[in-house]
Every structure is written in C-alpha cells, then in structure tokens.
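Box 4.2: Ligand-aware structure prediction
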Amino acid sequence: MAGSSAPGALGAEPEFITGAHPRVLAVTGPQQYESVLDAVHRAVPPVPDPFVDLLPATGVKLTPRHYSYLKISEGCNHKCKFCIIPDMRGRLVSRPAHAVLREAEKLVEAGVRELLVISQDTSAYGLDRKHDTSPWKDREVRAHLTDLARELGSLGAWVRLHYVYPYPHVRDLIPLMAEGLVLPYLDIPFQHAHPDTLRRMARPAAAARTLDEIAAWRSACPEIALRSTFIVGYPGETEAEFQTLLDWLDAAQLDRVGCFQYENVAGARSNDLPDHLPAEVKQERYDRFMEKAQAISEAKLAARVGQVIQVIVDEVDAEGATCRTKADAPEIDGNLFIDEGFETLSPGDLVTVEVDEAGAYDLWGKPV
Ligand code: SF4
C-alpha cells in the first residue's frame, strides 16, 4: 500500500490507516470504499472478526465464480454498544442505485448465478441519499431496498439479502420473495430477544414485535427461510433474560442460527458495562442455545425429506456434488449433497432434486 492513497470507509478514522501504515500518502472521504477495502485487504489480509466482518472468514474470492457478494452501502448510523463498525467505517454511505445495478448486471453477464447483497445495515440502504433516483435503462430507480431488490431480481440470478434489520418496510420485500424475484431468505441479525438486553445493547428496532413480524412474513411467503445471529452472555444478561431468548427461539423456529459468546472488542462501549459474566456461564448458555437451535434445524430439515426442490451446485468432485438450497447461503449455512447422478453437473448449475435424507444441518438428494 506504500505510495497509494487510501480513500474510503476508513477515512472516517484516518489514523486507523496511517497509524498502522505510515507510508500511506492520503486518506480521503468515504466515496470510493470498494477500492480502499480491496487495497487494505490486499495489503493486510483481515483477521476474521464476527463482530465486524460482513463476509465469511474465507474472505472474498477474487476469481470469477457462480456467486458474488454485492455491497450496496458501507458504514452504519446505529450505535450498538458491542460494535465498533460506526467508529471504524463511519456513517452510512449508500451507492447510487444505478451503480449497484450496473455492477450486478456485469456480474450476471460474466456468469454469476447468485448475488449476495451485503452491507452493514441493508434495510437502511439509501437513507443517506434521501432515497434519490438514478437513471437505469429506460427508467429511474430509487435508492431504496425494495426498489433495488425488485430490479436485481429481474436480472435472472438468485438474489439473497443479508443483514436486513426488521424495520417495518422489510414487509414490502416479502411479496418479491413470494413472486420469485428475490430468494425467500432473510438474514436478520436479531442478536437477542429480551427487551432489556436489547436496550443495553442499544440495538435498533429493540422494541419491534419480532415474533409478530416473523408470523406476518411467513403468512405472506410460507417458504421463507430465516437466518439470524445472536450474542449470549452479554453483560448483565440474567438467567431470566437468557430464558426469554430460548423461549423466543422456540417460538420463532428460525431456520438457520449463528451464536457468539459475548467478548469485549477493543473500543466497544459494552466493555464498560457492569456485570460481565464469567466464561463458564457464557459457555453454558451457548451450549443450551445451540442445543435448541440444532433441534429446530433438525426437525425443519427432516420435514423436507420427499420434497422436490431446486438447488445450485457449488462444487463437484469424484465423490459427488455439493449444492445449496434456496434456504442456504454459501459458506455460512448448510448444504445439499448429491452422491449419485452428479457426473454431468458443474458449479453454478441449477438442478432439481428430490430430498431423500436429512441431518442436523445438511440434506442429501438425487436429481430428478
Ligand atoms: S447495526 Fe449495530 S451491529 Fe450492525 S453495524 Fe450498525 S452498530 Fe454495528
């Protein structure tokens, strides 16, 4: 990175770059964040951090492949106490709708079959631009998630939405899923279910009636798959608060769940909260949480045996094909494996299979 400039999201805290890389010549504003993140990642492969990273620990594949991450904005206007992203990457800066769509169209033309929409706060897309419009094809497209998702859905690839907060307008996305324009999949980082814990986390939408929202989404699109992440052992989390989370999980019946034990992150405001929990309590709650999540996943997958579904092929080797259903994001969710009749398949193929076996997180099937 020596001799380069470093425009971008980290420009909100230039000393973060110049302190670590004194030979950097310039740190400028947040408009060209793609290039700075690429440059930073090329120079300093990021250490995976589930509290900061948008992407799975395996990172961004630079070689063309059949799925691609599509970043629609950078930064965040919230101030969750356990999170340092707003300090590191600044406030929300959304890309114009036409820039996102042009990139997406190029990716699809280059053979990408699945677009994974990411940002720190996908539901907030365009808020900073006051949802302005920009010209795309013969029309104007608004920088708003609903409008963007509809346009992305018309490009002919699978479109999967990550990091969507349960704001009321998320309801408007569900009809797009029911219509088949966007995958019936929502990755929503709920983090907890007890209102007091959420308040201590300073989470956005802390008061939202999430179970009612989930029920409404499912009634509009019964096949929707919901993924979320949670933090257990947050400072001050009582046994009763944790139990509320377990009960909520029982009621919510999420399809995919990730869980982290709370840990201090340098610079996070939650470090200063009272009543940090001992490691053994965090571990014990994590184990109880994952036991329940696994049981839910197992039951949900068992119910899919016998269904005929479409899957996308990720890899093929001598043993079989590793695929994903519409309910599985790459690298973080489960797989569907094909052990027979896979010889003619290639990565990126869409195949119709009958599910014939289910485990706790994965399925097996055969082409029909
Ligand atoms: S919504 Fe909260 S957790 Fe997510 S990036 Fe913003 S501050 Fe961090």
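In the box above, the bound molecule is iron/sulfur cluster. The longest helix spans residues 279-302.
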